[in-house]
Amino acid sequence: MLRSLGALVLLGLAAISQAKSSSGNSVLVLIQPSLQQSNFSIFFDNLEKQGYDLTFRAPKDETPRIIQDGIPAYDHLIFFTPDTKSFAQDITPQTLVEALGGKTNLLIALSPKQTPLSSLAAEFSLILPPPGTPLVSHFPVRDTPATVIPIDVPAAHALLTPNTAPVWFSGVPYVLSNSPLLVPILHAPAESFASDSDKDSGADALFDAAEKGGEGLWAGSSLGVVSGFQTKDNGRVTFVGGVELFSDEYATKELSKGVLPGNEQFARDVAAWTFQEKLVLRIDKTSHHRVNETTPREHYTINDRIVFDAHISHYNPTSDAWEPYSGIKDMQLEFTMLDPHVRTALLPVAGSPGKYSVTFRAPDRHGVFKFVIDYKRKGWTFLSSSTTVPVIPPRHDGYPRFLSAAWPYYAGAISTSVGFVLFSALWLAGEARDVKKTKKTE
User: Fold this and answer.
1) Is the pLDDT of residue 7 over 50?
2) DSSP code string of 54-78
């Protein structure tokens, strides 16, 4: 009995040590019955090797539930349900948004067919083409269908492994709106377009449909095929235009003789960002105090010299630990009261990993102010911090005894006083001499 308990404890510790996500390692995979789990074994095996605990469920199964007692039951959700048009009662766009707000991350595969997930994508600033219009490209010349396209992976992308080989893609593209929360990952090739036919004879119908829809021509590298979306609360969701990108078939399908595609590595990078392994930052603590002091004050006086410090770390998935991070060069601190009265650069401190510091003068205005950090960069975790502190006028004994700007008034008052004394003395002295002269005459 004791041995079995010890084994369970060791297994639990091993699972914790292998967890690579900063937000947890439980994953619920919803996969439609027409797709075999074995067809995605490379992708799922890689996740399990990283320490993720995968649970599989059909879209219409009632259990396990996504949200239990108002709390998300899983840290991450994977939807490999591109053609499913009806789900169980616990899977609705509202519940998915609720789960995302509860820090559950979503990886969603779309398809050219109209599904509830297609409607959900529109809520995240993605504009899909009319149903039944997959991405088509006749270049480069190849022996695959026009809807199976090799796409070059960006060479310099913060969340992708450098020098990743092109990936095979088949699915639906979409137009990206101007939302600052979108994170473009992979764009369609410049010579590709969305069409209901892989023949050029459908081009006129495509153009007419696009004109009626008011979205312009569905063609070119402005279209996206893999895109992320990060909420203001740092929940992440990624939309992939086709589930085949994760399949074993595409991961082993040669680009040319002896050259494998980058699907396996690309899928791993996309999952790593979605599951908050990559580009994850946090503010450990902030502090403030006056110059030449170390303890924070309950309030500051106008024109005080204030020092503000912030300690920031980033998540290292290799060691499964948070480490000090000094790589931010464009962060700012705002000292606000409704509007920013001070906006200054908050720069890293040399020799102090993870520490950022700035010294500034409190404005010549009293009121309730806030130290505000609001750092938002595409792909990175948003950093937000707000600390309230009042700024008061000086005490009655806190003003200087003499003001240099008032010396003209001081000189005027002193000269007037001196003149009055001299005039009084001369007037009194002159009156006394006249009395003496009168007495002598008598």
Assistant:
1) no
2) EEEE-TT---S-SEETTEES-SEEE
Tally of CB atoms within 10 A around 219: 22
User: pLDDT tens digit string along 109-135?
Assistant: 999 999 999 999 999 999 999 999 999
What does the pLDDT look like over 47-100, one tens digit per residue? 999 999 999 999 999 999 999 888 999 999 999 999 999 999 999 999 999 999
Beta-carbon contacts of 167 under 8 Å, excluding residues fewer than 6 positions away, are 150, 151, 153, 186, 245, 250, 261, 262, 263, 266
Distance CA 253, CA 262 (A): 10
Alpha carbon distances (Å) from 405 to 303, 409, 416: 17, 9, 19
Residues in the chain: 442
CA distances from 236 to 30, 224, 228, 242 (A): 18, 17, 7, 19
217 three-class SS: coil
DSSP, collapsed to helix, strand or coil, labels residue 10 as: helix
Peptide bond into 145 cis (omega under 30): no
First to last CA, the chain: 138
How far is Cα 113 from Cα 50, in angstroms, rounded to an integer?
Answer: 33
Q: Detail the DSSP E strand segments found in 148-296.
A: 149-151, 167-169, 174-176, 182-187, 193-194, 223-230, 236-240, 281-290
pLDDT for 421 equals 92
Q: Residue written as tokens 């009995």?
A: 1
